[in-house]
Amino acid sequence: MKKIWLVLLIMLTAVGCGTTKDDDNKDGNKDNDVATYTDGTYEAIAKGYGGDFTVKVTISDDKITEITTANNNETPSIGQAAITSLTDEMIADQSADDVDIVAGATVTSNAFIQAVKDCMTSAKK
């Protein structure tokens, strides 16, 4: 009787130690290394405090490699500083989600974040 319990205990333990398909994935991509984004540079218009400006997001190997702006008339020490800060955070996090707006530059922050999200949506496969 003790042998049966021992065998059952070993079987239950072995079942709990199995791996899933996601566990075997080396880069953590839950889609089993299927790219989420198409490589390229994508553009969107942001309606900032100083007017409209262009946001460009470059994707390479399923990663955000660069975020730039053009025709940016935001105040250098406020809006442009916010864009720089948000750009650094988005590239580090590889996402435009869950970034906080910069105090004092709410309009610019929201416009820039939305433009980056629009670029990411355009890049989705």
Describe the structure.
By secondary structure, the chain is α+β, with helices and mostly antiparallel strands. Helix content is 41%, strand content 22%. It contains three helices and three strands. It has a three-stranded antiparallel β-sheet, covered by helices on one side. A hairpin with a 2-residue loop joins β1 and β2. The longest helix is centred in the last third of the chain and has 18 residues, at 76-93. It starts with a helix and ends with a helix. The model is unreliable at 15-29 (pLDDT under 50).
SSE map:
Layout: H1 2-16, E1 40-48, E2 51-60, E3 63-70, H2 76-93, H3 106-123
Antiparallel strand pairs: 1-2, 2-3
Helix pairs in contact: 2-3
User: Which structural class do the helices and strands define?
Assistant: alpha+beta
How far the N terminus sits from the C terminus, by CA atoms, comes to 57 Å
By oligomeric state, this entry counts as single chain
Order of helices and strands: HEEEHH
| Helix count from the secondary structure assignment | 3
